[in-house]
Amino acid sequence: MILRDPEFYSMISRRICIGLCFIALTMQASSALAEVFTYPALRTTQVADPEQSLLTYAQPTAVIYGSADIGAFAPVIEEFQQENPFIAIEYHQLQTLEMYDITQRQRANGEATADLIISSSMDLQMKLANDGYATSYQSTETQALPNWARWHNEAFAVTQEPAVIAYNRAFFREHDLEPPRTREDFIALLDKHDDLFSEKVTTYDIERSGVGFLFLARDERFFPGIWDFVRTLGQSKVKLYSNTSPMLEKIASGQVVLGYNLLGSYAETFTQRNPNLGVILPDDFIVVYSRIAIIPRGARNPDLGGRFLDFMLSIKGQTVLQNEGNFNPVRPDVPPSTFSSLIFDRYGERVRSFPVGPGLLVYLDQAKRQRFLRRWQDALLNRR
What is the mean pLDDT of residues 51-68? Predict the structure, then answer.
């Protein structure tokens, strides 16, 4: 029995106050959340639909499609507007596949699209770039990236984020248990205490989560026992979710007590207000992925997209992303946080990253993808 996330089918509207502007935006039938950041407030109308902007501004406006939670991404927008007070930001939080589909559809219909797209699905973002959907862009900031973090001046890594194990501290103290520090430990713990962890473990639903799929595909490459691991999850009646936030909330509250392959950036931020949540970087190896940014062809204001991209990749922007959102920097000249140092200094040789490039497209090969998903389904249902 596999329990899927009921929250996948609904969205909770959130509101953010930035500077002088507090805007409540209506929701559409899609999964999109949209917020408009203006500093100062010169807004004249509202927006909700990423495919048909209804906004008219008395100031230049950069339209951004992003998969990062609005709350986590707001600080870098706010800092950008401190330096660029008369540029508004229209930010649409979208599921990665939705973002990909909208971009393709807008291009096919000859419509203007976003000025910048920042996606956590590295494979889908790389496919857009490889298929000619990205504009070439070069600046001092993009050139400061390491070679692995940019491709043809069209696709740029803007973060480095590890997959982590998260656990409920109180539960493990109560039962005098040590949380697992490796994948083998994880299997052994669930095998030994199957009743205790029944319906208490969570991970991504890789059929609905692009980053969850990438994480598990990377696991398969470096961990020969990955399918035994997935079978163990199935025996524990694992609960599957399409994004990280609800998993972290449920672990901290004790509804579930152990999570696998969760986004470390969100998990580390969550611990700051939820001390009952523990976060572990696996000792055997750490999968690290990046959010990729592109300026799409047909952008409304590509210069504004480039301007925001440059700020994110600047030392100041990377520092804000790191300090406010625990998005580890890509640039090597940004002073690392304690979390970033722990990953790349202590675990350096055990970090398994995804270089930006056509190699990511292997994860989109439909025949391979379907075989992988069938194996996932069979393992969860304990079919050999």
Answer: 72
pLDDT in tens, 173-232: 999 999 999 999 999 999 999 999 999 999 999 998 888 999 999 999 999 999 999 999
pTM: 0.80
The share of the chain scoring above pLDDT 70, in percent, equals 84
- Dihedral sign computed on CA atoms, order 94, 95, 96, 100: negative
Q: What is the dihedral of CA 182, 185, 186, 192, to 10 degrees?
A: 180
Distances in Å between the Cα of 180 and the Cα atoms of 62, 195, 255, 268, 372 are 44, 17, 19, 17, 26
First to last CA, the chain: 16
47, 51, 52, 57: CA torsion to nearest 10: 50
Q: How far is CA 99 from CA 9, 33, 102, 116, 143, in A?
A: 17, 12, 5, 11, 27
Q: Tell me: pLDDT of 317 over 60.
A: yes
Q: Which residues 6+ apart lie within 8 Å of 148 measured at CB?
A: 157, 353, 355, 356, 357
Residue of 172, 180, 238, 232 whose CA lies nearest to 5: 238
Distance of alpha carbon 202 from the chain centroid: 17
Distance (Å, whole) CA 169 – CA 172? 5
Query: What phi and psi, each to the nearest 5 degrees, are found at residue 278?
Result: -105, 145
Q: Which two tokens stand for residue 317?
A: 């922007």
CB 102 within 8 A of CB 288: no
Tokens 């609005």 locate to: 70
